[in-house]
Design a protein that fits this description.
twelve-stranded antiparallel β-barrel; elongated; Porin; Cytochrome Bc1 Complex, Chain D, domain 2; mainly beta
């Protein structure tokens, strides 16, 4: 979003003009996003939208390359419209991007945004509308650029996620545990994820992946977990799910897990109450069921820093008594902007 939502920083060149249509844009041509872009944005972002401004233009930050698929696909249409309408300052961005909701009509603003998003000529980039809020337990199906610090009872994870191209993602996890054992280093995990299918029309996507954990820290043997993750939005509710299997060196298949999460945005998208269910079924012995009520919270105005707080509530199963545990995380979407910007 930080680089993505530098959108039309050149709007200052026309926002101060008379309300309605910009000079040079007639009523007959105002229904074309390309025409509006040429009149309002090309001086800063270039006629080809590659971010090359006119020689007379000076901005605080370099104009974004709007023809980049990384830029044009990362956020939702409504997020783009909000930035263009309310201006950069409302989201902690550069003052080069003024609020010009009064200078252009809502239809004109949305036409420009749709034109900019159409500049990605490569097929296969999942749109930002499918980047649903992150649950605590379920693996997101959307490929991300994030750093996450998470805690689950006495266990902690530092997670690094890096998007690779259109659909793939690499993930690395460094795990620790603060308990009675004098071995705080718990292990590391690496993973790859690939988006198999997505549909903006159906508001759904599906991905598959593989997690591998070597015998380091508290782990005594290799562990492998293939998984499939999916998400879908219906009637304002977001349902996300994951199915994964377990395999250990010398043991073979150890079991499977099913995870589901349901949430809905409230407060203008600032908060997302969710509840997740996790059902673990070992190859031998009783399965366990837990519920995870939680609240996702957008922390920065830009939305690139968010957090979650909740709890694991055991519901049954398992050979030993289980107790509630605190769950929380803080994430930084570094693909959207620098950590200290956007507040």
């Amino acid at each position: 979003m930080g680089r993505t939502l530098k959108l039309v920083a050149c709007a200052a060149l026309w926002a101060s003009s008379a309300p309605g249509l910009s000079p040079g844009v007639s009523a007959q041509t105002s229904d074309s996003g390309a025409v509006l872009y040429a009149a309002w944005c090309a001086r800063c972002h270039g006629g080809d939208a590659r971010g090359t401004p006119a020689a007379s233009v000076r901005t605080e930050v370099p104009p974004a390359d709007l023809a980049s698929c990384t830029v044009s696909s990362a956020e939702t249409e409504d997020q783009w419209v909000g930035i263009v309408t309310r201006g950069g300052e409302a989201f902690g961005l550069s003052l080069d991007m003024p609020a010009y909701g009064d200078a252009g009509t809502p239809d004109q603003i949305r036409l420009v945004v749709r034109y900019v998003r159409s500049l990605c000529r490569e097929r296969g980039w999942p749109p930002g509308e499918l980047n649903f809020p992150r649950p605590f337990l379920v693996e997101k199906a959307f490929p991300e650029n994030e750093v996450i610090v998470a805690a689950h009872g006495q266990a902690q994870d530092l997670v690094y996620e890096r998007r690779i191209g259109r659909r793939a993602q690499f993930e690395g996890v460094f795990s620790t545990a603060i308990d009675s054992l004098d071995r705080p280093f718990a292990g590391v995990t690496v993973a790859l994820k690939y988006n198999l299918w997505h549909s903006l029309e159906r508001r759904a996507l599906t991905s598959v992946g593989l997690e591998v954990s070597p015998p380091v820290g508290r782990r005594e043997r290799w562990e492998v977990e293939p998984f499939a993750a999916a998400g879908i939005e219906r009637a304002g509710f977001v349902l996300q799910g994951e199915v994964l299997g377990g395999w250990e060196e010398a043991e073979g298949v150890t079991g499977a897990s099913v995870r589901l999460g349901l949430g809905r945005e409230v407060g203008g998208g600032r908060f997302v109450p969710m509840v997740e269910a996790g059902w673990d079924v070992p190859r031998e012995g009783d399965g366990t069921l837990s519920f995870y009520p939680q609240v996702w919270i957008r922390l920065s105005r830009l939305g690139h820093v968010a957090g979650s707080v909740g709890a694991e509530l055991p519901a049954g199963g398992g050979p030993e008594p289980r107790h509630p545990r605190l769950t929380l995380f803080v994430l930084w979407d570094f693909g959207d902007g620098p950590l200290l910007r956007g507040w």
